[in-house]
Specification:
The complex is a heterodimer of chains A (478) and B (123). Chain A is mainly alpha-helical and 478 residues long. Helix content of chain A is 64%, strand content 1%. In chain A, α8 packs parallel to α16 and α9 packs parallel to α11. Chain B is of the alpha+beta class. Chain B has one domain: Alpha-Beta Plaits, CATH 3.30.70. In chain B, strands 2-5-1-6 form a four-stranded antiparallel sheet. A two-stranded antiparallel ribbon of chain B has the order 3-4. The relative contact order of chain B is 0.28. Classes of the chains: A mainly alpha (478), B alpha+beta (123). At the A-B interface, α10, α11 and α12 of A face β3 and β4 of B.
Chain lengths: 478, 123
């Protein structure tokens, strides 16, 4: 339902009211206009949920960082989100949704009320669409940085956030959600909420960054074997995972762009089943391999299950969801173990968002129910229903196009950043931690600054000489 | 005066403190330390990658007593800290030249422990 034609059709009632733009308050509220307002209300509730995913990414990444790099995660999330907000408003939204050419949109820069955007006058309904879609851009951007933790320069975030929110993500979003290229491949690539468009895009940019950035110091021993660099807080990581899981109900559920037929409830139920499958799958595999249920892998499994079910969430029946999640859980554990041999990805984003995103997109080609595909109007039923590999081929084309495009553009951008301002901090900075070097204060000051130095009492005037021994035996609490 | 220094398992500390308190030796300090001995390291896993800890956490007890009390202290530590496995720890005894109580300024063996014998002894 994320294609342009449907988004145009859905808030139809609200769109009708556009014809009398300035009289919004005075106009009569017909049943039709209220239905449109209900759609917008749900879109905004979902927007809030997807925004909350920023907190999820922040805690997940901070939990997986060492304590000396705990504070910078907050600055990073806030700065990236804010830059992307402005760039998306000025450029990104127009590229993604302004017009229906196959390559990119070309109208609606500096989006504002009354101005043409995507051939329509902008009103509240379109503002809702604008802010909802931005949250997806922000999620995709947040995914990029998890893999680069603990060694990337803060200055590198800024130019990349501009390019990513202004060009890279909007381009893919136009192809996948805005009626561009992906609608023209076969009967259309099925990606309900963005396994490819959002998650594979973010992970692919992370992959490009990682190739230029190299591993953290000490990640690989003299024998070349990967060593564990444990994050400082599993509880914070777990809180991040649970917040992401919550936000995902808005991410997938909101992608119905309305409340018509209550299909958003089905999508949310399917999403939860997918996440559950992911936790179970990852837990089974890591337990079999290492005889211990690793907490981090358990959480990565939840993320992988959610990423995996993101593309199929509007296209598959309930029974398929736990299967898709389960496979995503296997994929993320196998992926982390394999990728770690060569690339230092502290949070496993390449596996959880990249590999699981590819799996989720392909899963549509296998499990899509013909009735749901027909309802949404994109593509056909999957392999298990039709016995045909056609939709699977279409999905694979979507995945390949996403990966190649994002990888090329991201590689260029990061190479340019590396050649100018530099991508990686100096060894001494990495050793000391990014908190104190780049931000001037530790995330947990009392852990690094001895308590006697933090007290800071000056001696009272005239009390410099030691007093006579006291006879009191009263104990003073320390 | 002697200082008894013992490196023990965390769980052995509470029974030792309890018995020493009963015997009249409430004055001691502990530090949480990391060290290695014959136990060597153990290998742990984090998200599929290995990490070997060669240094294991222990509790270090420091306790200054009169020379004649050393056998009592050492005996208490040996009885409670011994599990029979590698990693039980070690005890060291070393001489101490002088001791001062900061609150009153007094010095010598009177400052050491609270049991009646030494507490009433002249400084």
């Amino acid at each position: 339902m994320r294609s342009t034609r449907l988004w145009r059709a859905l808030p139809a009632a609200a769109m009708a009211s556009l014809l009398v733009p300035s009289a919004a308050l005075a106009q009569e509220r017909s049943l039709e206009s209220v239905a449109g307002e209900l759609d917008v209300t749900w879109i905004l509730v979902a927007t809030v949920l997807v925004f909350f995913m920023q907190a999820g990414f922040a805690f997940l990444e901070i939990g997986f960082s060492r304590a000396k790099n705990a504070g910078m995660g907050i600055a990073k999330i806030l700065m990236n989100f804010s830059i992307a907000s402005v760039v998306w408003w000025a450029v990104g939204f127009a590229v993604a949704f302004g017009g229906a050419g196959w390559l990119a949109g070309d109208t609606g820069f500096m989006f504002q009320f009354g101005r043409d955007v995507a051939g329509e006058n902008a009103d509240g309904a379109q503002a809702a669409f604008f802010i909802f879609q931005f949250m997806f851009c922000a999620v995709s951007l947040a995914i990029v940085w998890g893999s680069t933790l603990e060694r990337i320069k803060f200055a590198a975030y800024i130019p990349f956030a501009v390019v990513f929110a202004g060009l890279i993500y909007p381009l893919i979003a136009h192809w996948g959600f805005g009626g561009g290229l992906f609608a023209e491949i076969g009967g259309g690539v099925q990606d309900f909420a963005g396994s490819s468009v959002v998650h594979l895009t973010g992970a692919t940019a992370a992959f490009a960054a990682l190739l230029l950035l190299g591993p953290r110091r000490g990640k690989y021993g003299p024998d070349g074997k990967p060593r564990a660099i444990p994050g400082h807080s599993m509880p914070l990581f777990g809180l991040g995972v649970l917040i992401l899981w919550l936000g995902w109900f808005g991410f997938n559920g909101g992608s119905t762009l309305g409340t018509a037929g209550n299909s958003f409830a089905e999508v949310i139920a399917v999403t939860n089943l997918g996440a559950a499958g992911g936790v179970i799958g990852a837990s089974i595999l890591i337990s079999l391999l290492h005889r211990k249920l690793d907490v981090g892998m358990c959480g990565n499994g939840a993320i992988a299950g959610l990423v995996g079910i993101t593309a199929p969430s509007g296209y598959v029946e309930f029974w398929a969801a736990p299967i898709i999640g389960l496979v995503a859980g296997f994929v993320v554990v196998a992926g982390v173990l394999a990728i770690e041999k060569r690339l230092d990805d502290p949070v496993g984003a390449l596996s959880a968002h990249g590999l699981a995103g590819i799996w989720g997109t392909l899963a549509c080609g296998i499990f899509t129910s013909p009735r749901l595909a027909e309802g949404i109007g994109v593509g056909e039923g999957g392999l298990v229903y039709t016995g045909s590999f056609e939709q699977l081929g279409v999905q694979a084309a979507g995945v390949s196009l996403t990966f190649l495009t994002v990888f090329t553009l991201s590689m260029l951008t990061f190479a340019l950043i590396k050649a100018t301002i530099g991508l990686r901090v100096d060894d001494e900075v990495e050793e000391a931690g990014l908190d104190i070097t780049e931000h001037g204060m530790y995330g947990y000051p009392e852990q690094f600054i001895p308590a006697p130095e933090l007290v800071g009492y000056a001696p009272a005037a005239g009390s410099a000489a030691p007093g006579a021994p006291t006879t009191s035996t009263q104990e003073v609490p320390a | 005066m002697k200082m008894v220094i013992a490196y023990i398992r965390h769980e052995a500390f509470e029974p030792i403190r309890n018995e020493l308190l009963g015997l009249g030796f409430p004055s001691l300090s502990i530090t949480e330390v990391k060290g290695s001995g014959r136990q060597k390291g153990i290998t742990e896993h984090y998200r599929g990658a290995e990490i070997t800890n060669y240094l294991r956490p222990k509790v270090k007890i420091e306790c200054v007593v009169e020379a004649k009390d050393v056998p009592t202290i050492v005996d208490t530590i040996l009885r409670h800290a011994r599990s029979g496995n590698i990693g039980d720890g070690k005890v060291f005894v070393m001489p101490v030249e002088e001791a001062y109580r900061i609150r009153t300024g007094e010095s010598g063996e009177a400052t050491l422990q609270a049991h009646p014998e030494s507490a009433n002894a002249p400084a």
